[in-house]
Every structure is written in C-alpha cells, then in structure tokens.
Amino acid sequence: MTPFLMITLISVGLSAMISVTYRLLTKPSEIRKIKDDMKFYKEKMNEAKKAGDTAKMNEYANEMLKCSQKQFRSSMKPMMATMLIFFMLLGWLHNNFGGVSADFTADPEAKFAYAEIVHDMQYETVGESFRTRVDLNDDGVFSEDETFDEGEIFTYNGALWRPGRMMEGFYMFAQPKDNTVHFEMFIAQMPVELPFIGSYLSWFWWYIFISLPATFILRKVLGVE
Asked: By residue range, what is the domain housing residue 121?
C-alpha cells in the first residue's frame, strides 16, 4: 500500500471514528435545542441593545452564556474519548511518514532507512549546498538517477522525497545543521501551488486536506450537530 493510499484511508477512518463517537455520546436533539436557544437569546439581546435596555441585555447575555456552557459540557465526553486516540495516531503518522534523516558527522556510514529497508548513502558538499547519493536498487553503484542535489524532488517507494538539511533547535529558532540530510516525504502533488504550503503536500497537509471534508460529510450523514 502506497503512503498516499494509507494516509487517505487513515484520514477517512479517523474522521468516521470521531463522527460515530460524537453521534453515540451526544444527543443531537439536545444540541439543536441549545443552538436554537442561543439564537433566540442573541436576537433578544440585540433587540434590548437597540432599545437601550441594559438590564435585559445583560439578562439575555447571561442566558447565552449558560447555553454555551451546556453545549461545551455535552461535547466534552466525546472530545476526551477521541483526543487520546487522535494524538497517538498523529505521533505514529509522524514517525512513519515524517521523512528520513542521516547525520554524517555522528555517523560517516549513515544510511537511508525507511520501512525496514536500508540503503547505502554518500554525502558531498557542493559550495554552500550539498549532493547526496542513495543506492536505491542496492547494486553497489551510485548512478546519476540515484544522485540528488539539495532540494531536488525524486520518487521512491510510492512517495515523493526532497533532500534538505536537518534542523537543530526549537521551531522558529531551529537552524540547519551542516553535514546532515533530511529527506522530507511528500504524499501528494497538487495541480496548483497553495499559499504558504506549495504544491507538494506532506502527510500532515494531506491528512488535513482529506479529513476536513470527510468529517463534514460524515457528520451530516450521521446527523451530528
């Protein structure tokens, strides 16, 4: 199974699990009533505001707050039930589809290791950039087709890969580390370039791309409010 198909199935499956859990642990009629009450009190509050009746406006605002608290309590049980599984699954996805790293300073014989398959590698500095070679067919020869410059996209094992430097540090303070390679894995390529994301989607963005519409459709089908 390719990473594309696996992430797609996991995304739809997790959306289905979350939607079913919410349907089983909440009462749609009760949620709908709370929403109707909130809409009613909001309209009344606006009327009181126009009339300059501060006392009534505060009264309706308090009723809206009570409705909001009821809605939060109703959604708390399914939220807690799905949150643990959700974060555990995200951790598993990151470990399996977050890419491959090799630190040639720590290990001059570093390998390209993915899905229990290990390939020999070479690393070469080219000016301020680098070039890496991966013996993908394990024939002991690093061909031109197995030679990749920094930032070059190549296809392997049903996914797209882009070699770059490993980052060292914490989020925005992270800096590229010399003599290292991180092969970022991309699950899909979009026909157009997306703002802030680009045209290549990692497992996380593909998960978001699939799970949002899947969750919306499944909640509608199951009548989840």
From this structure: 100-201
